[in-house]
Known about the structure:
By secondary structure, the protein is an alpha+beta fold. Helix content is 18%, strand content 47%. The protein has four helices and twelve strands, in the order ααββββββααββββββ. A twelve-stranded mixed beta sheet has the order 7-8-9-10-11-1-2-3-4-5-6-12. The longest helix has 15 residues, at 2-16. The chain is globular and about 50 Å long. Mean pLDDT is 89; it is low at 1-16.
Amino acid sequence: MRLFCIIALLLPALALAGPTEDLLGKLSGLRTLSGGFQQTVVGESGERTRDSAGTLEVARGNRFYWHTESPYEQLAVSDGQSVWVYDPDLEQVVVRPLTQDLSQTPALLFGGDPQAVSKAFSISEQSRSGQRVTYRLKPKGGDPLFDILDVTFEGETPRSMRLEDALGQKTIIDFRDLTLNGEPTPGRFHFEPPEGTDVIRQQ
């Protein structure tokens, strides 16, 4: 009888658990994330317009390192306060304050405050198959960078992100060879412009 009462008390809490709590639980378990990515941009009519690949590292505290290596090199680095976007071909780096708006900086999904995710997005479960589950995030605020963000996990590991804007253009990011919760690479989240680089500061 006592066991039955305990189970009965737990049922309301279990009933409340849903996609939001499920996703926030996975994000809360991520302190760091590093590996490779393959990114594909698909136009509104379904044609592939751009492919790129590179490496990434993300850490709690809104820190990230996103290095596109091919077909053209570009580097985006955040120390949690500022963002450097470096284009070696142009010998130019743009520095600006990091916006805390998750709908403008999707990388903060993994490196920002997990509790901020539920404030910024409406969250639902898009699909589930075994250990693989896709969550759909729709920005609550105005003027977002994208209308829909689908993020797929396999167990506790992120596998992909898919963003769709108001014009129907889709950006698909597949993660590869990820390492979760390792030690951050020393100096990874700070950028020193190479000598001769034009530095453009934005407010």
